[in-house]
Amino acid sequence: MKFICLTYLIISGITDSTSEQYDVVGPAAPVFAVAGEDVILPCSVKPNISVVDMRVEWFRPDLKDSLVHLYENHEDRNTDQIQSYRERTKLNHQELQRGNASLKLSSVQVSDEGRYRCFIQSKSWYDDTTVVVKVGAVGRPPVITVDGFDHSGGLHLQCESEGWYPEPDLEWLNSEGVSLSSEKTEMQRNTDGFSVKHTITVHHREDKIHCRVKLRHHVLETLIVTSSKSFNPWRTSIILSSITFVLILIAGILIYVFDHKYRGTFFS
Questions:
Q1: What CATH number does domain 20-136 carry, 3.40.50.10490, 2.60.40.10, 1.10.10.10, 2.102.10.10?
Q2: For residue range 8-43, what is the model confidence (pLDDT) as tens digits?
Q3: Which of 72, 167, 219, 267 is exposed most, by the fewest CB atoms within 10 A?
Q4: Rounded CA gap, 215 and 196, in Å?
Q5: Cα–Cα distance for residue pair 36/109, rounded to 1 Å
C-alpha cells in the first residue's frame, strides 16, 4: 500500500512539474478590430513547444453554443462551430509546430466583440488564456447641411454621420483648430451601428468650419466655408421683395395701358 501511494505521489509530482513548465499566454490588453477587416487573436505556449499533437480549442465562454474553432487529431474539426463563424476562422498549422495557436478571424463583425478562451491540452497538461476582442466600425464621412438662420442672423449648421460602433466623438472646429460648442446633440443606435448628429450656430463672417468624427485612431472630417454672403438672409429677402414689387408694378402698368386702350377702342 505504501508503495502504491509513493508511486502515485511520484507520478503526480512529475505531472505537476511538467504542467508547470508550460503556460498558454495571450495579449495583456484587449485586441482591437475593425468591422469588415481581418484580425489575429494571439495565443501561444511558453516556452515554445510544438502543439501539433495537442488539442487546441477556441471558444466563447459567454455564449451557450460556444465553439469558435477546434483543432484535434491533426485536423480542424468545426462541425459544432457557431454558425456565424463558419468559413471565417483559421489556424496556421505550420505555426502550431512553434507553439503558436493564434486564431485568424476574417471579415470581423460587430457581434464578434467579447471574450475568447484559447485552450490547449496535451496528454500530460493543459492550460488556457483569455483574449478580449473590441470591435470598431468606421462610419460614413460626416455631412454638413445649412439649417437656416436665427433671429440675430446666425447661421445654423448641422453635421451628421452614420454607421459607427461604438459611439464616436463628434466635434466642431474653426479654421484655427479651436473646438466649438455644439448646441444640440443626438445619438441613436440601429442595426447599422450608431448615428450622430450635432447642430451649431455660427456668427463669424469669414471662416472655415470643420466637422470631425473620431473613433480611436480613425478620423473622418468634412469642411464648409462660410462667407459674408452666407450671413445675409435679409439681403436675399430684400432682393426678392424688390423683384416682386417691380413685377407687380410692371403688371399694373400693362393692365392700365391695355385697359385704357381697350376702353378707347370700345367707346370710339
A1: 2.60.40.10
A2: 434 444 444 444 579 999 999 999 999 999 999 999
A3: 267
A4: 12
A5: 6
